[in-house]
C-alpha cells in the first residue's frame, strides 16, 4: 500500500473548556480529641528540639535570631496552604511535594470500599522563627480545646491542616545526610584516597529574598573555611528555586563527620541537603573489565560557522566526547567543546559518547539503517575520571552538574557572552545520563526542575533515559529449582521478582521531568547470538527490560513516557543461591554501535541500556523532524514549524505507541490481577508502550494522521473537527482513533501542583460514540497528570453518524499551580484508521474535506481584508 503525507488541520474554533473531572477525596480522619492524643507528643518534641537548637546557635553565634525549617506531613492534601502561611509573621513557605505509599491505620484510611488501600499525602516545608512557631502552637492548642472555634478569614486552612496532620518536626542533621548517598560517598572516597580532600554539594534552602540567599551562602562559606576547606563553585537558579555550593573539605574533617563528631557545617540550618558530586556517570552495563588499548585520534578543528554541512542540526547530544573519525560517524558530527575537554580526553576512553552518537546517527548497526540527513550537534559534558576504574566517563568535579547543563543549553540558544547562539536550530536534546543517588519518590529533583524550566524557556524537547538498574534479580526459588523450570515459568518468576523489587528500581533523576520524553527500555534487539551454557536469555519475546527504571512520575503521571528496544541482557545461572546476575560485556546480544579500537576506525561492539533507548528515540525525532519540515515548507508555514516542531515531535514520537502484545504477556505473568492494578504495572514499566515511528512519518489509504497546533490561555479551548468517512456510517467496521497532545509547562517548584498549566483533550460532539477507550491502554485520569496525553479509542459496532459527519476533539486549558503569564503552546496529532485491506479511501475522503475547510477559511480571511467603501 502506497504511503501518503501527513495532513494539517485548519485553524480551530475557540471556545470555553470542558470539565476536567476525576480527582480523589480526602481520607477518613480521626476526631479532634484523638488528634490531640496523637500529636501532643510530636508538638512537645518539636518545641524541645527548637529550644535545644536555639541554645546551640546562641553559643556559636551570640545575638543571632535563629530560623528553623519545620516539616509538616499530612494524610491527603491541604490545597493552597501556602496562602495561609502568609498569615503568620515569621513563617516563610519553602515548598511542598507528594508523599506516597502511606500505610492506613485506625485513624486514617481510604474513604472508598478498600480500607486497606495505601494513602497519599503531602509534605510541606516552612522556615520559621521561634515567634511564628509559638503562634502556630497556640492556634493548635486553641483548636484542640474548641473544635468548633471560628477561624478568621483566610485562616481556615489551618483547621484542614490540623484534621489531616500526620507529623510535625524539625529538619535536622539526619535529614541533610539521610538517603542522599553522601555518607557512602564520603566513606568510599576516604577508603580510596584517605589523604585527598573531598568535594561534594551543599544544596541550600532557597530563599526568595536575594539578600537572605547571600547571607546563607556567606555563612556556609565561612563554616567551610573554618574547617580548612574551600568553596569551589556556586550556582543559583531562581527560576527553579535552586541554590547550591560545591564544597571541598580536608579528608580528616570528612572523617570527623563520619565519626559523628560535632561539626558545625553539618548542623547548619541553611543547608537542605548534602549530596555526592560527579555521580552522573555511565552505568557499566557493557564493560568487559579489560584494559583498553591506546587509540590515536587525529586532531581535528571544528568550526560551528562552517558551511560544510548543507543542513542545520536538529538534535543535540550532551554526553561524552565521541570518536569523530570512526567510519560510522565521520562527517556526521558537529563538536562544540568550549570547555576544552578534548585536551584530556584520550581516544580510547571515548566510549559512551561514541556509542550514543552511533545510535542517533545510524540506529542499531545490525539493522543497516541509513544515516541521518542532518548533522548531530555534540556538546561534551563528561570526561574520563582517573580516580575511577578504567577512567569511567563522568561529569567533572570542578563545577556543579546543573551549572554545566544550564550553560550548555544557554550557549545553544543565546550564546556565551557576546557570542551568537551556536546552534539555535536544535529542536531535541538527548540526555542519556542519570544520577544513581536520586531515585524518584514524589519530590522533583533539581535536575528535573532544570530540564522543565529550560524546555519551557527555550522551546526545546529533552529526551532522557529512565535510568539503569544493573543489580542482580533475586528470585524466590533456589538456583537449582529455577533451572528446572520451563522457559515460560522462568520468564513469569523473573518478571514477578523484578516487580517485587520495584522500590529499588525507580526512575533516576532527571527522568521524572514532566516536560521531557522519558524513555524506558525493552528487552529487545536485532542481534542473533549463540548463547553458551550457563546463561539465561530470560524473555523469548519483547518485554520490559529488568534494568530499566520504573515509574510512575510526578503526581502519579505516566513515566516513562515510552519504551524502546535497549538490548537484551543475559543473566548468569544461579548455583545454589537465588541471585541472577547480569552479564556485562561487549558481545551480542545487544545493539551494535561504533567503538574505539587501537587498530581500526571501523570497530563495533554490542551494548545495552536505557541510554540506547533514549538515543534511538532521538534518532526517531530527527527522522520525524525531516517529515515535519517538508510538510510545513510545502504549506508555506516555516515560521510555524520553528515555533511548534518541538511539541509536535513530542506528540508524534509518542503517537504510534501502544502496549501491543506486551499487555497479554504481562497479564499472564501477574495472573489474576484486576484491570486497574494490571494497567498500573504496565504503565510503570513501559509507559504508553513501544512507538512505531513509521506511523508518525506517513499515512496510508486506510490511515490518516492530521496535525494541529496553537496557543491557549486560561479558560480557553480549541475545537478540531475530524471528518468521518462516509463508509463508517451504519457499518460494523473496526476503526481506531488515536489522539496525542503535548505541551511544555512552566515549573512552579514551590507548589505540589508544580505545572503552571493543565491541558487535556476530550472527544466530544454527537459522533463521539464512534469509538470508545481501548481496554489495553493507560488509565484515563493518569494520562492527564503530565504534559503528554496519549489515548487510543476503538470500535467495531454499527455506528450511526450524524449528517455533518464530524468528530470533535477539544483541547482545553486551565491554570494549575500559578497564573498563566503567556499563552501555552501545544502540539496535537490525531489518527483515524481502519484495518488494512478494507475497501475504503479513508485518507482521500478526510484530505478532501480538510482541504475544503482550509480553502473556506482562506476565502473568509480574504473577505475580511477587503476594504469597504
UniProtKB/TrEMBL annotation:
Q: Which organism does this record belong to?
A: Aliivibrio fischeri (strain MJ11)
According to UniProt, the name of this protein is Peptidase S8/S53 domain-containing protein
Return the InterPro entries for the record: Peptidase_S8/S53_dom (IPR000209), Peptidase_S8/S53_dom_sf (IPR036852), Y4bN_pept_dom (IPR034074)
What molecular functions are annotated in GO for this chain? serine-type endopeptidase activity
Q: One of this protein's GO BP terms?
A: proteolysis
Outline the segment boundaries, as ranges, of region: Disordered: 1-33
Please state every residue range assigned to the domain named Peptidase S8/S53.
323-689
Amino acid at each position: 500500500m502506497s504511503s501518503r503525507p501527513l495532513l494539517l488541520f485548519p485553524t480551530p474554533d475557540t471556545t470555553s473548556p470542558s470539565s476536567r473531572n476525576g480527582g480523589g477525596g480526602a481520607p477518613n480522619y480521626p476526631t479532634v480529641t484523638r488528634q490531640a492524643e496523637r500529636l501532643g507528643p510530636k508538638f512537645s518534641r518539636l518545641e524541645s528540639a527548637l529550644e535545644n537548637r536555639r541554645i546551640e546557635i546562641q553559643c556559636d553565634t551570640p545575638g543571632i535570631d535563629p530560623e528553623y525549617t519545620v516539616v509538616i506531613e499530612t494524610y491527603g492534601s491541604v490545597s493552597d496552604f501556602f496562602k495561609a502561611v502568609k498569615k503568620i509573621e515569621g513563617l516563610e513557605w519553602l515548598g511542598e511535594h507528594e508523599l506516597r505509599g502511606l500505610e492506613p491505620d485506625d485513624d486514617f484510611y481510604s474513604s472508598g470500599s478498600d480500607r486497606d488501600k495505601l494513602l497519599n499525602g503531602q509534605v510541606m516545608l516552612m522556615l520559621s522563627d521561634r515567634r511564628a512557631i509559638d503562634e502556630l502552637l497556640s492556634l493548635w492548642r486553641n483548636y484542640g480545646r474548641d473544635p468548633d472555634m471560628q477561624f478568621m478569614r483566610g485562616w481556615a486552612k489551618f483547621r484542614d491542616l490540623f484534621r489531616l496532620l500526620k507529623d510535625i518536626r524539625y529538619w535536622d542533621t539526619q535529614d541533610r545526610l539521610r538517603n542522599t548517598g553522601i555518607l557512602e560517598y564520603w566513606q568510599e572516597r576516604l577508603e580510596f584516597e584517605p589523604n585527598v580532600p573531598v568535594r561534594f554539594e551543599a544544596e541550600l534552602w532557597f530563599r526568595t529574598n536575594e539578600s537572605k540567599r547571600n547571607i546563607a551562602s556567606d555563612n556556609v562559606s565561612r563554616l567551610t573555611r573554618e574547617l580548612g576547606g574551600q568553596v569551589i563553585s556556586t550556582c543559583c537558579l531562581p527560576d527553579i528555586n535552586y541554590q547550591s555550593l560545591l564544597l571541598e573539605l580536608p579528608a580528616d574533617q570528612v572523617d570527623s563527620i563520619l565519626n559523628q563528631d560535632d561539626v558545625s557545617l553539618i548542623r547548619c540550618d541553611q543547608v537542605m541537603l548534602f549530596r555526592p558530586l560527579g555521580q552522573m556517570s555511565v552505568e557499566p552495563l557493557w564493560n568487559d573489565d579489560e584494559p583498553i588499548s591506546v587509540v590515536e585520534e587525529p586532531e581535528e578543528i571544528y568550526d560551528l560557522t562552517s558551511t560544510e554541512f548543507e543542513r542545520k542540526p536538529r538534535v543535540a547530544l550532551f554526553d561524552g566526547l565521541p570518536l569523530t573519525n570512526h567510519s560510522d560517524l565521520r562527517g556526521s558530527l558537529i563538536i562544540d567543546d568550549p570547555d576544552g575537554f578534548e585536551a584530556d580526553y584520550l581516544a580510547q576512553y571515548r566510549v559512551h559518547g561514541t556509542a550514543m552518537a552511533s545510535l542517533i546517527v545510524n540506529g542499531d548497526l545490525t539493522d543497516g539503517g541509513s544515516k541521518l540527513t542532518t548533522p548531530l550537534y555534540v556538546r561534551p559534558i563528561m570526561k574520563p575520571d582517573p580516580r575511577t576504574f578504567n577512567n569511567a566517563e563522568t561529569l567533572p568535579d570542578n563545577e556543579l552538574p546543573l551549572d554545566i547543563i544550564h550553560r550548555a543549553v544557554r550557549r545553544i540558544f543565546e550564546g556565551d557572552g557576546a557570542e551568537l547562539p551556536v546552534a539555535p536550530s536544535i529542536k531535541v536534546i538527548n540526555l542519556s545520563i542519570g544520577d544513581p543517588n536520586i531515585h524518584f519518590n514524589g519530590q522533583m529533583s533539581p535536575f528535573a526542575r532544570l530540564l522543565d524550566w529550560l524546555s519551557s524557556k527555550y522551546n526545546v524537547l529533552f529526551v532522557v533515559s529512565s535510568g539503569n538498574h544493573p543489580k542482580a534479580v533475586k528470585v524466590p526459588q533456589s538456583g537449582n529449582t529455577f533451572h528446572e523450570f520451563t522457559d515460560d515459568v522462568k520468564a513469569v518468576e523473573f518478571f514477578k521478582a523484578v516487580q517485587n523489587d520495584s522500590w529499588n528500581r525507580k526512575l533516576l533523576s532527571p527522568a521524572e521531568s514532566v516536560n521531557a520524553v522519558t524513555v524506558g527500555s525493552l528487552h529487545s534487539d536485532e542481534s542473533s547470538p549463540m548463547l553458551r551454557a550457563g546463561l539465561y536469555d530470560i524473555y523469548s519475546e519483547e518485554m520490559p527490560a529488568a534494568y530499566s527504571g520504573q515509574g510512575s512520575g510526578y503526581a502519579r503521571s505516566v513515566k516513562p513516557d515510552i519504551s524502546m528496544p535497549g538490548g537484551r541482557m543475559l543473566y548468569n545461572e544461579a548455583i545454589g543461591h537465588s541471585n541472577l546476575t547480569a552479564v556485562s560485556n561487549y558481545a551480542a546480544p545487544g545493539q551494535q554501535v561504533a567503538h574505539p579500537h587501537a587498530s581500526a576506525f571501523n570497530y563495533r561492539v554490542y551494548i545495552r541500556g536505557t541510554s540506547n533507548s533514549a538515543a534511538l528515540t532521538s534518532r526517531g525525532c530527527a527522522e520525524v523532524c525531516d517529515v515535519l519540515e517538508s510538510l510545513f515548507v510545502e504549506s508555506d508555514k516555516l515560521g510555524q514549524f520553528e515555533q511548534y516542531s518541538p511539541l509536535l515531535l513530542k506528540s508524534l514520537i509518542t503517537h504510534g505507541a501502544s502496549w501491543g502484545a506486551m499487555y497479554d504477556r504481562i497479564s499472564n505473568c501477574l495472573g489474576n490481577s484486576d484491570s486497574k492494578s494490571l494497567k498500573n504495572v504496565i504503565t510503570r514499566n513501559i509507559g504508553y508502550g513501544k512507538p512505531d515511528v513509521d506511523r508518525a512519518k506517513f499515512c496510508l489509504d486506510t490511515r490518516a494522521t492530521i496535525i494541529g497546533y496553537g496557543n491557549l490561555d486560561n479558560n480557553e479551548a480549541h475545537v478540531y473537527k475530524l471528518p468521518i468517512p462516509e463508509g463508517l456510517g451504519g457499518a460494523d467496521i473496526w476503526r481506531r482513533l488515536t489522539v496525542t497532545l503535548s505541551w511544555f509547562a512552566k515549573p512552579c517548584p514551590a507548589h505540589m501542583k508544580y505545572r503552571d498549566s493543565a491541558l487535556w483533550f476530550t472527544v466530544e460532539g454527537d459522533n463521539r460514540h464512534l469509538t470508545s477507550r481501548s481496554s489495553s491502554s493507560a488509565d484515563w485520569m493518569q494520562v492527564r497528570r503530565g504534559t503528554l496525553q496519549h489515548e487510543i479509542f476503538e470500535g467495531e459496532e454499527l455506528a450511526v453518524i450524524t449528517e455533518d459527519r464530524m468528530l470533535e476533539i477539544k483541547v482545553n486549558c486551565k491554570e494549575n499551580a500559578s497564573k498563566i503569564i503567556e499563552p501555552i503552546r501545544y502540539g496535537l496529532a490525531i489518527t483515524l484508521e481502519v484495518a488494512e485491506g478494507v475497501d475504503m479511501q479513508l485518507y482521500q475522503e478526510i484530505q478532501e474535506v480538510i482541504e475544503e475547510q482550509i480553502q473556506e477559511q482562506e476565502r473568509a480571511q480574504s473577505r475580511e481584508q477587503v476594504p469597504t467603501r
